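Amino acid chain:
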Amino acid sequence: MNKKHVFVIIGVILCICIVASVIYLKVKYDEKEKQKVIYYKEQQERITLYLQHNTKEPNTIKSVHFTSLKRGPMGDAVIEGYINENKKDNFTAYATPEHNYQFGGAMIESERLSELLKPAHQLKSPDEIKEELDKKEGH
């Protein structure tokens, strides 16, 4: 074989390796994005549950809307949103490493939203609320 054929074969093998690597990385990226969507959807459900079950008056919070889902500088999830179609009734919720990156009640809320929620010592975490709901369904 002459040198030209060797270079062509090496070039083809290199191209195949590059294409295979790109496909592999694309599949991994898509998988990670899919997991991210599932994670944020789960956190949105936890936040909605927390807000709707920790109000002073039942059924005060009719809807919860999420505006921003991002990763904070310390690796925690920062989720922003508002309630009842009123963007002034906003909140910022955190899913921190202390709670295994699950929303556990860490939240900064607007003054109006703070008025709707129970006092801090009466607030229940999403896990406590889920346990209570499971007990009610079980009986």
Notes: The beta strands are 64-71, 77-83, 86-96, 102-109. Helices lie at 3-53, 111-116, 126-138.
